Amino acid sequence: MSKQDNLDIKRVAGVAAAEEVQDGMVVGLGTGSTAHYAILRIGERIRAEGLSVVGIPTSYQSAMRARAAGIRVADLADYPEIDLTIDGADQVDAAFNLIKGGGAAHTREKCVAMASKRIITVVDPSKLSEHLNVPVPVEVVPYAATLVEKQIEALGGRSVLREGVKKDGPVITDNGNFVFDCDFGTIADPAGLEARLNALTGVLTCGIFTEFAEKICVLVGESKGCRTLTR
Ligand SMILES: O=C[C@H](O)[C@H](O)[C@H](O)COP(=O)(O)O
């Protein structure tokens, strides 16, 4: 599939999710290339339909994109209860466990997910997998980087410090931390691994999301429309 075709199907999912937004809602705004299309469409609907929506961004990227789209943006502290969040994922398994953080935004995304009544996860079909098996992003306090690497090795993972594409040295998250991408192969027990990673000294948050399956609906963009997966 060409890069443009892939963006087109991401747009299908993002736009379909944005149609679920209703007047008066507080909406969590995800990060990444798929959530981007939802943000654009919400902005269009605010202009065309006069919707009143407050957006709670999950990153500097989504805050900037939301403002550019004409969405009023507020802090999670102001709106700790969110009606609906639209966000992407790097992988979704059959039980709706997720791996997130390909854009290093998973800590704020997890906070917003926790605060949300409903979550629409927008993906292209390549993100669906029976089991989680892509590397897990783990946000780490820089001071503890070497300590965390050793702890991840002890858990059976191989960690690689994420480095910038247009920056020399480590990627720095919106929270001022490093990210390790940690390969555990196929993850047999996502909830157990999530708990173990989050408990490591020096770790802020890992990108495994297992707590939200009950409130997640997955929209899969496809060339001929959008497929909805529910549990
Ligand atoms: O940190 C970034 C987020 O978790 C994204 O939602 C995830 O990486 C998916 O991004 P995309 O929609 O660009 O594939």
UniProtKB/TrEMBL annotation:
Primary gene name: rpiA
Official protein name in the record: Ribose-5-phosphate isomerase A
Coiled-coil stretches: none
Enzyme superclass (EC): isomerase
Function: Catalyzes the reversible conversion of ribose-5-phosphate to ribulose 5-phosphate.
Family affiliation: Belongs to the ribose 5-phosphate isomerase family.
Domain of life: Archaea
Keyword Isomerase: yes
Binding site for substrate: T31, G32, S33, T34, D87, G88, A89, D90, K100, G101, G102, G103, K127
Catalysis performed (reactions): aldehydo-D-ribose 5-phosphate = D-ribulose 5-phosphate
Cellular-component GO terms for this entry: cytosol
Any Gene Ontology biological process: pentose-phosphate shunt, non-oxidative branch
Species whose genome carries this gene: Methanofollis aquaemaris
Gene3D superfamilies linked: 3.30.70.260, 3.40.50.1360
Quaternary state and interactors: Homodimer. Homotetramer.
Record's keyword annotation contains Cell wall biogenesis/degradation: no
Pfam families: Rib_5-P_isom_A
